[in-house]
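Provenance and format

Records in this collection were gathered into a single text stream. Each protein contributes a sequence line and a token line. The two records reproduced below are adjacent in the stream.
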Amino acid sequence: MEFNTLEDKIAYARTLENPPKDLQDDFFSLLKRGIGSDKTYLVYRNVDQNRTEISYREFYEYVINAARFYQSKGLQPGDKIATISHNHWHTVVQYFAAWFCGLVVVPVNLGEDDNRVAYILENAEVKLALVRDEYAERIQSVIDEGKQLGDIEVVICDDSVDSFSVREGELSEAKVDVESEALIVFTSGTTGNPKGVVLTQRNLLEDARTISQWHDIDGQTKMMCVLPIHHVNGTVVTMITPFFAGGSTMLNEKFSAGHFFKAIEEEQVHIVSVVPTLLQYLTNYYEGKGAPKSEQFRHIICGAGPLTVKVAQNFEEKFGLPIIHGYGLSETTCYSCFIPAEQPKEEHNKWMRDFGYPSIGIPVPANDMDIQDEQGNSVPEGERGEIVIRGVNVMKGYFNNREANESAFKNGWFRSGDEGFIKRDEEGNPYFFITGRLKELIIRGGINLAPLEIDEVINKAPGVKAGIAVGFENDWYGEEVGAYVQLKKGAEQDEQSILDYCQRYLPFSKAPKVVVFGEELPVTSTGKYQRLKVAHLFEKWSDVQFRESG
């Protein structure tokens, strides 16, 4: 298909041939639905497990008071506000109040360094920053040192909502529609400045609708959030989706393996969304212990990071809970595909275990997906190419970054940057698989190697608790393969046994040549491996020519 302009490409990527019926709800109507309801929407537990319960009626009142506060500051639809906080129910109020007023929320990941925080605040053109008191000194210092940040007003938030509330006075109804911008989420790259993903109210609501339909989330469903809500997974899956469906959710300040199942039982939770790293934490925490059981708990949603067959199988066999594996990006609001939620165990295991990678599932109704080559042509089933997405959950674009938009929408679909392939079932349904980031591919002697394939073998090697394949510069082959490994408790640093194991199950070209041991794997706040962060640890082998023995 031919396109005249970048705008035409983006418009095409944000539509479907057969779109879902028009949304019946927006954030304003969803909020009004809760005016008189004493049903619980949100339970918040801090790190000490102290509990705050908020009904739909109370939440509505908090949101309206925060909306009055925003308007009292002179903020207009389209203005940007930053939220700088750990997981807290105040932040959820701040989000919804912003959308009520047509404001754009810029969540700030406190794991970023000061330079990146300053870049985000400046690039997003933030006018007001809502900062929890324990981070106020740091953020004020960032603003004071930033040349272009002096006009940002800082509002310090403590245990009370009073700092961002106005209880009385007129509240004008903002001009807001489904294409009003709602979120700018900055992606966490390993190099260069992060890119701001612009999501509209429709993006958020359409993805919430498709997630609720796929997982049968309704007014009786209780969810639990253990992921950071500065990221779309925590926000869309476990904050917006239950609100959209009229259900309830429990927000944890932080993930705790020791409190995870206890909280599920005490709150009678049905569904939790996690990243693969947390599955490993839970499996390791309960090693040698009996697995907790819960009658009402239905399944785990898992995505936003690389899941191996081993990690998935160990968790499912230990806890007897199905992992509904899925995939998506901030650029597609959140999830774009899932394994079917209701599937016979044998069929589920087939797609999660039999193809070298756990399948990320089939496309959800909000979008289409394909595997394409560099020119935008579909590749045959089983052949590897780039995962591309088109639909009503695709972002409006990267903020203030035309170059990135030109690259991402080059062929009229959103290009994920992830490599994958498709296998079809007997009914012709396309099951997608992800093999790794295209930019993370290890190119050894001109041959592309997928890190996730190598990860699978490293993680089964003796003594290995968790490990990743790392491509490092090498004078002989351009790049070579290394393994960065975290050992099981009490295991010896036996590099040779790990190398021998990997060479038994991988061809020499793919097998790691050296092992570097570390305390923990480098991951983003959402569990994505940051291989490039440890590549420098392999520098001393850059001039070594590794030869196959025998």
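Adjacent record:
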Amino acid sequence: MRPRSNAPGTSWRPRIVDGFHRKRHAIPALLSATLALAGVACNPEPDAGAAAAFPVVEATIGDVQAAIRDGRTTCREVVERHLARIAAYEDAINAITVLNPLALERADRLDAALAAGETTGPLFCVPMLVKDNFDTHDMVTTGGSIALADNIPPDDAFMVRKIREAGAVAIAKTNMAEWAFSPRQSVSSSFDTTRNAYALDRVPAGSSGGTASGVAASFGVIGLGSDTGNSIRGPSSHLALVGIRSTIGLTSRDGVIPLSFDRDIAGPMGRTVEDVARVFNVVAGYDPADPYTEAGRGREEEDYTAFLDADGARGARIGVLRALADPEETDGEILALFDAAVDDLRALGAEVIDPFDFDVAAELGREGMFCRRFRHDMWVYLQSLGPAAPLTDVLEVLEDGRYSDYAQASLRRNEGAPLDVHPSDWDEPCPDYAENDGRQAYLASLVEAMDAEGLDAILYPSWLCIPAHIDRGDEEYCGDNSQRVAPATGMPAITVPMGYARGTLPAGLQILARPYDEGVLFRLAYAYEQATRHRRPPDGFPEIR
């Protein structure tokens, strides 16, 4: 690494004095002030008729860029229209933590560059949402904790810098689970509870739920999230998005507030496979500030969009991991959607091995795969903030009460863990990913099993259960498959929409491949997406004037 009032029924309860707690009612005021400076209406009405303005609901990167180059819109208008959507609809889902006050100035510069004939980047004028654990030099970065409520980092995270260099506009930061602790919900002590845009009484999962609900409701064209065990793929599944967790070592985590540095991954979450591949082109690759990327140096593809082939499933050998689709553990409608997805891929010409027998439970039981390194990893991150760092040790929050009740147990688990000693040098060592014998054995065992069957990829449902009710997130939490293979093995996995349970609740199909086979993931996900077209926008967030 680089040296709101509470929602009804939520379990979040502030333990802090009013001097620290930023009330949820301050967010509409912030939105209003920022948009007023830009001359954008703060409460636009839904469009009752045909609108002349460029439509942004479900707009893709290609749609935006073609419309600007054809003169049908400008970058400024595209950014304004996304900001206006946030102003109109944010209060319903609480996805946004802070707006970028320089977003429209950035859009104007991009318009001027295009008019001057300058070369534009691959993400030219793409309004992007950024999870609140990515460092941004121009917006606060809290990691979901009130303890970092005033933390403005000295520079951008690697991925944020890369998307900006490619021409994107980071228009806002998004809410997350506090310290990324929860895969269940996205509840922070800094900005409260995010709701699922498809069902406001249900969770978006965690911890990248703000990015997921915001992108689903077209607050941005695409977004960035992070995934230690679930947090890109779970929320993407719950919000009918495409989300990819890359091979450990292919993408940098520099400047992303860590949860467990030997498992953390950062990456894009979007509405289409193509959009995710376009952003992945920009953010994948070596970064000297992240030592893990040395292993992946030179292993990224030149262009992941080259793998996007509507006939890309033909001839692929795909294994169905029935160990992660047990009928006794799986919601009946989710299982039916998964079986239909398997049939769809078979109809697309894939050779399906069903079942692919592999004992996930036994592999997860290996010793030495987990350790309490959050305190140390946070110490490294806080040092990177320099003398302005608001904390030296993340466990200081236990002394002054700056945490949500649900985060206390996770914080307490790190008491007694060494602070400034690398985990590999502890009395009971916690080795990094490449030196972790348990994980390397799991990886080798799974790849060997895939080799024996000649498989290109493995399938399973991203989540076995429908999204939980927001007031019963803990009791109804079940079926989180994303935790069980990719993080421990370091293998890449992508989730793509596979339909809706109960008519409106999204479900995701997860595809897992060998290390550095992200191209295979994009090829299969794209073929499935183009054949099925399951993605649809959530109700209640129509186009606005």
